[in-house]
Description:
Rossmann fold; six-stranded parallel β-sheet; 9 helices; single chain; alpha/beta
Amino acid sequence: MSEPLTLPIDARTRYCAVYGHPVSHSASPAMQNAGIAALGLNWRYLAFDVRPEELGKAIVGAKAMNFIGLNLTVPHKLLALDMVDSLDDSAKLWGAVNTVRFEARDSNGNWQAVGELAETPAEVRSRGFNTDADAITRAVREDLGLELAGKKVLVLGAGGAGRTAALKLAADGVAELFLVNRTREKAEAVAQEIRRLYPRVKLVLDYPSGPVDLVLNATSLGLKEGDPLPLAERDFSLEAAAAVFDMIYRPAETPLLKRAKAAGCRTANGLGMLLHQGARALDLWTGKRAPLEPMRRALTQNVYG
Ligand code: ATR
């Protein structure tokens, strides 16, 4: 299928960007520019290597230069909580900002995305959102055909990604959550948060003794060649899992996913999460539904060649 033409840059071109440190590996420009082109917008999405100590200035600078919005990646997502003018509930709930939308007041005095306004008034605010958590549920639903409510899930890892995943699964109404992490205290801290916010979820800080609907890997094991599996197979056999989701997307097939396929599980890697967090950011900036298929194609091409 032929992709839509990108409009040439001119004096009316508007900008959005991802800030990270490092950022050169980011697939977001390829994915977002494909979405922008499909929508026929005269926008461009750029990538900037921003040092954490410069993040506040870089956000204010983008606002001054009439940017539409920003994505933030490692190590900026927590820092930005204190650096934007206002926080959406999603950023408050998940305790991190991965998307900034610049907003101005419309003719009725309501704050609206500057991307939806023809002219940007003098008073603009930066508003922080989190689109990462919802992307987990969307990717699991689309790529594995799994609705999480009432399900039994084993989550591996309790770092930043594992905490968000476990809390999101609890918010989605899973019945039982099994949390396993190398450092047990971190899994305990996540469990405490879940007990407080979602007391109905049955929590076990150990491997399941019976079958589960989903195993979700949120550890970094599998990123590097030669990494061991993120789970102890003597404690839990993948034969007992209906589906396995690995948040890692590079490599496309981690040793865990390979083992899971051999055990007959449905499998998916984390590319769908990357797609959906980006698509939701584009929704927020444009006020329209982001075109998923061109974004997915550009993302896949960029990541896997
Ligand atoms: P992220 O923000 O991507 O979640 P992180 O907070 O550093 O990154 O978390 C990395 C996760 O991978 C943690 O669950 C970590 O376990 P610890 O909490 O015990 O550090 C897990 N992890 C990393 N290397 C590991 C290893 N060699 N064996 C087991 N788990 C590992």
